[in-house]
Each structure stands twice: as structure tokens, then as C-alpha cells.
Design brief:
By secondary structure, the protein is mainly α. The protein has one domain. It is built from 6 helices and no strands. It is globular, with a radius of gyration of 17 Å.
């Protein structure tokens, strides 16, 4: 049942993204940035945690989940380090994901060449 919940929530997020791309003048980069900020805001307001408990990876894998991870990192770092944690917690929590993205991007650049397809 958890797979169905994850699929529905993740699919709903992706469908909303596609609607925004098709129906508005927003660029994908702006939509992605807005999703990260929205994930942080919803986590700060306590509204995203119930969605994460309901859908699991369907709520933590999309970019809203990246914002959720950053906000959780800030929350725990502030509890440990005080105000300094507000600046370091999000970076610490997101470091693994960012490092993986950089590594796999580099790997793709080494093995594949970019070129004009026309």
C-alpha cells in the first residue's frame, strides 16, 4: 500500500509541475526553485511532515523533499548549535544529495559528449 501512496503523491507533484510548465510562462528552473522554497516553508509550518508520514518517498524524493531535508537539517542544527545552526544545518543536511548530483553530472560528462542533434 505504501507504494501506491508514494506513487500517487509523487505523481501528483509531477503532474502539477507539468501543468505549471504547460499553462504558465514559468521556466522549469523557476518552478524547481519554487518547489524547494515551498518544501522549506511547508516544513517550517508543520504541514509537510504529515504528507511525508503518509507517502514516504513519494513526498521526500521530489524537490519539495529537498526543501524538507534542508528545513529538518536547520531545525536539528539550531537545537544543537543555536543561531549558527540556521546557517549550517541546511547545507549539512543537503550535502549528500548535492555531492551525488555533482558526481553523477561529472560522470555523465566524461562518458557522453554533448552535441547538436540536428
Amino acid at each position: 500500500m505504501i507504494y501506491l501512496k508514494a506513487f500517487l503523491v509523487g505523481g501528483l507533484i509531477c503532474a502539477l509541475s507539468q501543468i505549471l510548465i504547460d499553462r504558465t510562462r514559468l521556466t522549469p528552473a523557476r518552478i524547481l526553485s519554487a518547489y524547494v522554497v515551498l518544501g522549506v516553508a511547508l516544513t517550517g509550518l508543520g504541514l509537510w511532515e504529515p504528507v511525508v508520514r503518509f507517502a514516504g518517498c513519494g513526498a521526500t524524493v521530489p524537490l519539495l523533499g529537498f526543501g524538507y531535508a534542508m528545513a529538518q537539517g536547520v531545525r536539528s542544527a539550531v537545537a544543537e548549535s543555536g543561531l549558527l545552526g540556521a546557517f549550517t544545518g541546511g547545507l549539512t543536511a543537503a550535502a549528500g544529495g548535492v555531492a551525488a548530483a555533482v558526481f553523477f553530472s561529472l560522470l555523465a560528462a566524461v562518458f557522453f559528449s554533448a552535441g547538436d542533434r540536428s
